[in-house]
Amino acid sequence: MSTAPHRDQDPVFVRGAFAAIADRYVLTNHVLSLGIDVLWRRRVARIVAAERPSYVLDLATGSGDLAEAVSRACGPGTRVIGADFCAPMLRHARDRGLPALVVADGMRLPFPDAVFDAVTIGYGLRNMESWQGALGEMRRVLKPGGRLVILDFSLPNAPLLRAPYRFYLHRVLPSLGGWLTGNRGAYAYLGESIERFPAGAAMCGLIEANGFAEAAALPLWGGISSIYTARAA
Fold first, then answer.
1. How far apart are CA 175 and CA 196, in angstroms?
2. Which residue from 65, 106, 172, 188 lies 20 to 30 Å from 73 (Cα-Cα)?
3. Which superfamily, per CATH, for 11-232?
4. pLDDT band at 4; cut points 50, 70, 90
5. Is the CB of residue 173 less than 8 Å from the CB of residue 195?
6. pTM for the full model?
């Protein structure tokens, strides 16, 4: 029986979709979330800063929003490395002045074992070829006891909120995102990927099954997004 990780997303499609919207990615995120995504990233940054890490990896860093927030929260004593497999997105991260950026696939990270004090990933795990494989790589590069912090979309539990949120995901978001970026398909994919992505207890179980302990979920705004924290076992 094969032990290869299950494929959760098509990496060729994902890389192409993000490359196509790279130039308008940050603006579109802020418009579609009404700027709330900035607050969520700052919350992640505060969680990481409380650990007083020396060396942090921000995986799927994209345009560098989360890496920048973590760097600011942690201060000059912390080195933050941003890694992403989409080079056009990293060009925008360089424009933000982030000095340490690496083109790297989250499934095959070019870092030694047990080197980082913390790993963050904002809205990126959902897009990985294998969630299991990506979590395994994050565990590999984390020091024992190191902190993992994941920020990603989830579906609200409350029916009164879930129904209108799904309408927004599948009807409003593709049209508005397509108008802003010229790529409707990338935003249609976004809603579909959120529907498939595990959340809450299911996500905590997936995290702990791949080398982590103390996994916990923090729903944001009724569960529209969630922060997941854990420690490398």
1. 21
2. 106
3. Vaccinia Virus protein VP39 (3.40.50.150)
4. very low
5. no
6. 0.87
